[in-house]
Write a structure and sequence with these properties.
three-stranded antiparallel sheet, 4 helices, magnesium ion binding, alpha+beta
């Protein structure tokens, strides 16, 4: 059963400029495993985190540090949840995730489907 669906789109240049301007933003938005990725990949992961939040109904109080998006060579990306995001997912009965991320022509996008 589908519990929720989320989608998000990010302008890569605008996102990169924001990361460069706002001290500490990279550390607030991304886990250590994500921080050193290329700007387009960071924008795609941010879109994925936004899509995940939307699939959960956008509850307040979730930490971006509690979701890590991993690349899988030859497969769909996977998301590792912990803390506040895991608690929100469990409260809604989410047992698995389907995630798609992409970046091309200056745009990063993501779709997240929460399945119960």
């Amino acid at each position: 059963m589908i519990v929720g669906v989320g989608i998000d789109v990010v302008d890569v240049d605008r996102f990169t400029s924001t990361l460069e301007r706002a001290a500490g933003l990279r550390e607030r938005l991304f886990t250590p495993a994500e921080r050193e990725l290329a700007p387009a990949s960071l924008a795609a992961r941010f879109a994925a985190k936004e899509a995940i939040a939307k699939a959960l109904g956008a509850p307040g109080g979730m930490s971006w540090q509690d979701a890590t998006v991993h690349r899988v060579v030859g497969g769909a990306p996977i998301v590792d949840l912990s803390g506040t995001v895991l608690a929100a997912a469990e409260a809604r009965g989410v047992r698995s995730w389907h995630l798609s991320i992409s970046h091309d022509a200056g745009i990063a996008s993501a779709v997240a489907i929460a399945e119960g």
